Each structure stands twice: as structure tokens, then as C-alpha cells.
Amino acid sequence: FFGLYTRTIHCTRGEHLAYTLPDGSTIEMNAASEVSYHPFWWSIKRTVSLEGEAFFSVKKGSNFTVVSQKGTTQVLGTSFNISTRNDHYEVFCATGKVRVAANNTSEEIILTSNMFARINGKLEVVNVMSADHVLAWKENKFHFNARVLQEVFDEIERQYDITVQLEVDKATELTYSGHFNRSKTPEEVLNLICHPFGYTFVKQENGNYKVSQN
Asked: Under a CB-based contact definition with an 8 Å cutoff, are residues 38 and 5 in contact?
């Protein structure tokens, strides 16, 4: 029983959560994310399963592995961000060095500080604007750079724990760029996103929102 026991930490929509692992390594979890590990095997095998997005600060020691559906990231002691959303697997190395491997192929790559990799059909290194851009969520900020509009609304739903009903065309084709603080209300954020496209939104009786074209 003890060998099979798994501890699962779930961060719900609309919140961020910090968690400390048995060795002192820490996890900062973004909204709608989940991590799990085997506490009774931790001293022998430091392996964490992740779905969603989280920032890891790893204490030096034996190999530390983060496993998700599309990829696996392995380190000794470093800090890095992993996102498994929207059928993507993305890793940003903040400090130290990490090895990223695609689960369905033999591809792997070593990332050093400020390098970013993505698995989306293939494993590739991608240029990013800055660490602040990737890690904006940790500071309760939004940074969207040519992001698919559907994904932008998905992120707003996660961060504010709301539902946005889209009655617009090409939400999976259009892109949006912008940055703002999470301290803004959902209405203020939706107005910033909708305005460039000529969209309007209304708050419905159930507290959710409907976005439509003029």
C-alpha cells in the first residue's frame, strides 16, 4: 500500500498554489494544474507527474524528473517552467541545465539558462522575448505574444474561474498580442481582448460571459 500511495496536489481554476516537496524542492503551480508523486519512494526516485503549468525550483541531489503526456524533463538541481496546455509541451530553463525528451520519439535536447523548447509534432528550441514573458503568470501578469485567440480566452477562463462562450468566427486562426495585470477585473480584461477584433461581450445571469461579433 505504501509503495503504491500517490500524493496529488490540485490547483483549481482561479488560483495559484505553492507546494514544497519532501527534499525541500518547491513547485509554484498555475491555475488548473495538477502534480502527483510517490512520497514513500521520494528518497530513492524523485519523479513528479504534471498536467497544466508549474515552475520548479529543484534542490541538488539525485536525478529529478518531471513526466507529462508528451515529454519528460530531467535535472539535477535547477529551476525551470513547464507547460502542458493546448496539446503542447513547453519547457523554459531559468537556471542551470535540463534535459528535455519527447516521449513518442527519440528526440532530446539539453537546455541551459534562458533557453526554451517546445514539443508540437517535433522537439525544437524556440526564441522567446524574455524570462519575464514566460514567467509572467508567477507575477500575476498576462503576456500574450501572437497567441491564438482561442488559447487567450482559455487562459482567461483558468485565471478567473469563469466560462467564456464564444460566438465568433476564426477564434482558432486569429492571434492576439497584449499584456496586463491579473488585478484587472474579468470585464476589463475581456474589453481589452475584444476591442481590437470589434467583438462585444455580455455578462449572463449565471455569471458567465458571451462574446459575439458586431
From this structure: yes
* 154: nearest Cα among 136, 138, 172: 172
Predicted pLDDT at 120: 83
Query: Whole-model pTM above 0.70?
Result: yes
Q: How far apart are CA 209 and CA 109, in angstroms?
A: 42
Identify the CA nearest to 76 among candidates 89, 92, 91, 95.
95
Contact, 84 vs 72, CB < 8 A? no
Average confidence (pLDDT) per 10 residues, the chain, 214 residues: 80 96 96 95 93 96 92 92 90 94 90 91 82 90 92 94 92 92 94 94 90 88
Residue 24, helix vs strand vs coil: coil
Contact 55, 135 (CB under 8 A): yes
- Got the DSSP string for 46-86? EEEEEESEEEEEPPSSS-EEEE-SSEEEEESS-EEEEE--T
CA 100-28-12 angle, 5° bins: 110
